Amino acid sequence: MLRTVALAALSLATLAAADARAQYAEVIERIKPSIVVVGTHLPTRNPAFNFRGTGFVVGDGTLVVTNAHVLPATLESDKLENFAILLPGETKQVQGRTATRVAFDPDHDLAVLKVNGPPLPALRLADGDGVREGETFLFTGYPIGNILGAYPVTHRAMIASIVPIALPSANASQLDPKVVRRLSSGPFQVYQLDATAYPGNSGSPLFNPANGEVIGVINMVLVRGTREAALSQPSGISYAIPAVHLRRLLDTVK
Q1: How many CB atoms lie within 10 A of CB 125?
Q2: Burial of 52 by CB count in 10 Å (0-12 exposed, 13-18 middle, 19+ buried)?
Q3: Which pTM does this prediction carry?
Q4: In terms of C-beta density within 10 A (0-12 exposed, 13-18 middle, 19 or more buried), how is residue 163 classed?
Q5: Which fold has domain 136-250?
């Protein structure tokens, strides 16, 4: 009897795992056309496109979200340098488009680009902020894209903890201007993940594997620069900025 029950439980677990894998495959296939490479384009440079990070399409299909730190502070406008995205196609032919910055939130390290050309498939943002510790999500981006190329890669991540972005340092010598500004403006909650994000993943969407809705934006700089400011050797912990802050920023886009 016990053996029969154990076998039945094992069969159910195997079926559940198979269903999860099929679900992941389906949502990843649907998500990938909305994941773009973010960088700058300068006609006289070799290569002309400079890889900076990951972005994803939202809204009416012409808006691309990324981290604020992914975008350079200035452009060589006199040499016709522009913000730009690359969009890998089904035939592996890379499509390039120029863009302009239309929204910028350095406090939450978020930025929005307006992309030239016809609309692209857009991702939906999750409603509310009902994310719980222990839930599993996916994120897709271009880790080390300047070396590995424009091939979107998906990782699985559990919400390990929901933590404040800034922690008081042990002494004043460990406080830099970014940490001071974060402490003065008040900390906000971020998602700490049990997955490893790599350079190039900044700006990747963290999304629900059940429906593809975005619950956060992977961040590789702002969070570590504040939460881990006291460490001489920052850890490999990855974080994501909750989508609620992105919703507020998108509301400012005309």
Answers
A1: 19
A2: buried
A3: 0.82
A4: middle
A5: Thrombin, subunit H (2.40.10)
Task: List the domain boundaries for the chain.
Answer: 136-250
Rg of the chain, C-alpha, whole Å: 20
Residue among 166, 161, 160 nearest 185 (CA)? 166
pLDDT tens for 202-251 read: 999 999 999 999 999 999 766 555 554 444 444 567 899 999 999 999 99
Q: How confident is the model at residue 146 (pLDDT cuts 50, 70, 90)?
A: confident
Instruction: Look at the block and give the residue holding tokens 């590789």.
Output: 220
Model confidence at 128: pLDDT above 90: no
125 token code pair: 């943002």
Calpha distance 124→127 (Å, rounded): 9
Give the amino acid at 32: K
Residue 142 burial by Cβ neighbours in a 10 Å radius (0-12, 13-18, 19+): buried
- For residues 165-184, one letter each, b for 16 or more C-beta atoms within 10 angstroms of the residue's C-beta and e for the rest, the string is bbbebeeeeebeeebeebbe
Could you give the C-alpha distances from 55 to 75, 115, 175, 203, in angstroms and in order?
A: 19, 11, 30, 5
Length of the chain: 254
Helix or strand run (H / E) with residue 178: helix 177-185
Structure tokens at 189: 């909650």
